[in-house]
Amino acid sequence: QVQLVASGGGLVQAGGSLRLSCAASGRTDNMYAMGWFRQAPGKEREFVAAISWSEGNTYYKASAKGRFTISRDSAKNTMYLQMNSLKPEDTAVYYCAARFDPKVYDYWGQGVQVTVSS
């Protein structure tokens, strides 16, 4: 089993920054990738960014490119999402996830609220 604990959400004005963290514990050996997803009120959960755990390759939702940066500290089993130039439309509950399968996210953390005021 793997446990994921997300932190770092909050309230920020448009144009501001936040950094989310997601710490993984448990059986993390052979983790394939970790990612961030978000869900805004009344909308479906959507992909934001992901990072391959061994190579550090990164992938982003189009609207996140250039504003968000995903990274990881393998020694700490922790993933980060640096979010800059935040917009009100970034307001959502953000979830971190881990996968050991190339296609399926197996484990999910609790969500953290990110609210961007205009």
Question: Would you give an account of this structure?
Answer:
- By secondary structure, this protein is mainly β.
- Helices cover 0% and strands 54% of the residues.
- Strands 2, 4, 5, 6, 9, 10 and 11 form a seven-stranded mixed β-sheet that branches. It has a four-stranded antiparallel β-sheet with strand order 1-3-8-7, with no helix packed on it.
- Strand 9 (92-99) and strand 10 form a beta hairpin.
- The N and C termini lie far apart (40 Å).
Name a few traits of the molecule.
118 residues, mainly beta, four-stranded antiparallel β-sheet, 0% helix
Structural class: mainly beta
Share of β-strand residues: over 45%
What ranges have pLDDT less than 50 throughout 5 or more consecutive residues?
A: none
Overall outline: globular
- Compressed to H and E, one letter per element, the order equals EEEEEEEEEEE
**Rg over alpha carbons:** 13 Å
How confident overall, as mean pLDDT? 96
Helix fraction by DSSP (H/I, runs of at least 4)? under 10%
Number of strands: 11
Helical segment count: 0
Largest sheet: 7 strands, mixed
End-to-end separation in angstroms reads 40 Å
SSE blueprint:
Elements: E1 2-7, E2 10-13, E3 18-26, E4 33-39, E5 46-52, E6 58-60, E7 68-73, E8 78-83, E9 92-99, E10 107-108, E11 112-117
Parallel strand pairs: 2-11
Antiparallel strand pairs: 1-3, 3-8, 4-5, 4-9, 5-6, 7-8, 9-10, 9-11
